[in-house]
């Protein structure tokens, strides 16, 4: 899994979750006396990943989860889901906008009716320049469109409305 967006972890953080840890151990097991210092008689973390000479990229995420708890993460995710649902409703009510796909998770893909790719870029650049938000053009089935990916629980309906009012 890649926890760097919704779970607020560093960009290069990763977490490996195995349905069958025994298969992972079989695939990654390496023997070296220097690795055995990690073995506690039950499991050795070096047996479950291939990146032994790299830093422990999942550790910042683990510390954050340990400090804040799973409920804080769940509440943050629910807040962003609520905001994304509200954003989709605001887009659907906007006279110049329409949803391109159904809103899923924290993603809203939408178009400004009649705009060219150049207009999307000009709008996005101006939005960022003013400091109002970062909404970059993307493509859906070859068409230039916009995409909200709401992962910050501090983003609220007023923020979304501020952005939509510029369209």
Itemize the secondary structure elements and their pairings.
Layout: H1 21-28, H2 59-68, H3 70-93, E1 97-99, E2 107-112, H4 117-130, E3 137-140, E4 143-149, H5 157-164
Antiparallel strand pairs: 1-2, 2-4, 3-4
Helix pairs in contact: 3-5
CATH class categorisation of the largest domain: Alpha Beta
CATH architectural category of the largest domain:
Alpha-Beta Complex
Number of strands: 4
What do the pLDDT scores average to? Answer: 87
Poorly predicted runs of 5 or more residues: none
Outline, from the CA principal axes?
elongated
Biggest β-sheet, characterized?
Answer: 4 strands, antiparallel
Give me the secondary-structure category: alpha+beta
- What percentage of amino acids are in beta strands? 5-15%
Adjacency order of strands in the biggest sheet:
1-2-4-3
Distance between the termini: 35 Å
Q: What's the CATH topology label of the largest domain? A: Aspartate Aminotransferase, domain 1
Relative helix content: 25-40%
Q: What is the CA-based Rg, rounded?
A: 21 Å
How many domains, as an integer? Answer: 2
Name the helix and strand elements from N-terminus to C-terminus, one letter apiece.
HHHEEHEEH
Our count of helices gives 5
